[in-house]
């Protein structure tokens, strides 16, 4: 099994290769060669990357041990599957690496048995401080995706001009793994997440819509009418994330974006959990505006606007990278629009809100999505 350091390196191979090819085309220097893997090497014809298929990960031998006996044993059992699905190097942009059917079934059964045993304890207890069954596994998954996102951020290039070319392929690979993990751990969604949402712990809670209901409610409103107002508020929130009238798939996609946009203490589906962590641990640090330390003297003051618009202000790394992309004379207009569109889709999927300045800026350049 690969170490964490080796796994982190494979994540960067495709992104760094893309940056290297772009610099080679423009004549820019490259100080160190990109980290590559056999999967990113060119085929014998030299026309496209060789797509060597990755063999499905086999079911590890557990002997007589019961993977559902404890959280530590369950996590030791499913971690290789998550690492293979989320972190294995691949050039396949449509599908994450697979695991064998018996391993897939084993993970499902282990999660089922573990959560079921916790459920019996939870239901038998009269104490209110006993955590809901599946809470510890869900928290462990949250930590896993947080660590994975931070690993990706640590591998980001220092040059702002290379940042977007690194982010897009990294996120696409990460998102494929997140969606595959969501299917693998579907029982966690069906049991733990659904139950948490029923207990008002989901991405949209009653407290979030009380103000809306209080403004529109009347003293004569029935329970059914109040329930309708709550559903209307939920629909209004979902419309911010997509055209939910386009069909069931569009509705599911919009709700996934809304879940990813929620605070980290809200319980959401596994795929949205992964996307939310990518936003919090990877993108938000790049969006953060640098702050000057107290007592630091500014050598060059920001010039006044003289009524010609807002004064220029410090920008985060990602905002600077977008500015460089849109103003670059070395990148063709079509390529600029394509990259802007892909970045806009990513920001939407991870829950960056529509009124964010960067999303507004990208919306003017990118194609509709």
UniProtKB/TrEMBL annotation:
Residues 1-21 have a biased composition (Basic and acidic residues). SUPFAM superfamilies: Cullin repeat-like (SSF74788). InterPro entries: Cullin_repeat-like_dom_sf. Residues 1-63 are annotated as: Disordered. Residues 27-43 have a biased composition (Polar residues). This is Uncharacterized protein.
């Amino acid at each position: 099994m690969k170490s964490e350091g080796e796994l982190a390196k494979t994540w960067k191979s495709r992104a760094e290769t893309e940056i290297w090819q772009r610099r080679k085309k423009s004549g820019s220097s490259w100080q160190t060669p990109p980290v590559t893997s056999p999967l990113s090497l060119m085929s014998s014809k030299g026309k496209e990357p060789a797509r060597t298929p990755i063999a499905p990960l086999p079911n590890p031998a557990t002997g007589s041990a019961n993977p559902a006996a404890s959280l530590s044993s369950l996590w030791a059992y499913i971690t290789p599957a998550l690492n293979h699905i989320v972190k294995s190097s691949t050039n396949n942009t449509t599908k994450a690496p697979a695991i064998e059917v018996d391993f897939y079934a084993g993970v499902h059964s282990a999660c089922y048995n573990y959560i079921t045993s916790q459920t019996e304890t939870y239901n038998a207890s009269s104490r209110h401080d006993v955590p809901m069954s599946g809470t510890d596994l869900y928290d462990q998954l949250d930590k896993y995706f947080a660590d994975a996102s931070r690993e990706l951020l640590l591998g980001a290039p220092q040059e702002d001009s290379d940042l977007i070319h690194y982010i897009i392929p990294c996120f696409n690979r990460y998102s494929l793994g997140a969606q595959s993990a969501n299917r693998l751990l579907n029982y966690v969604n069906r049991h733990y997440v659904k139950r948490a949402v029923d207990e008002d712990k989901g991405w949209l809670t009653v407290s979030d819509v009380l103000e809306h209901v209080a403004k529109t409610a009347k003293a004569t409103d029935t329970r059914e009418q109040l329930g309708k107002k709550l559903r209307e508020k939920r629909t209004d929130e979902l419309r911010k994330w997509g055209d939910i009238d386009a069909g069931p798939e569009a509705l599911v996609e919009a709700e996934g974006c809304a879940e990813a946009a929620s605070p980290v203490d809200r319980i959401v589906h596994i795929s949205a959990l992964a996307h939310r962590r990518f936003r919090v641990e990877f993108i938000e640090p790049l969006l953060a505006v640098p702050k000057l330390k107290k007592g630091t003297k500014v050598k060059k003051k920001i010039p006044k606007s003289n009524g010609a618009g807002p004064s220029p202000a410090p920008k985060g790394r990602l905002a600077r990278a977008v500015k460089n992309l849109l103003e670059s004379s070395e990148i063709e207009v079509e390529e600029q629009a394509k990259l802007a569109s892909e970045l806009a889709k990513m920001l939407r999927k991870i829950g960056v809100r529509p009124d964010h300045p960067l999303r507004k800026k990208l919306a003017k350049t990118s194609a509709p999505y």
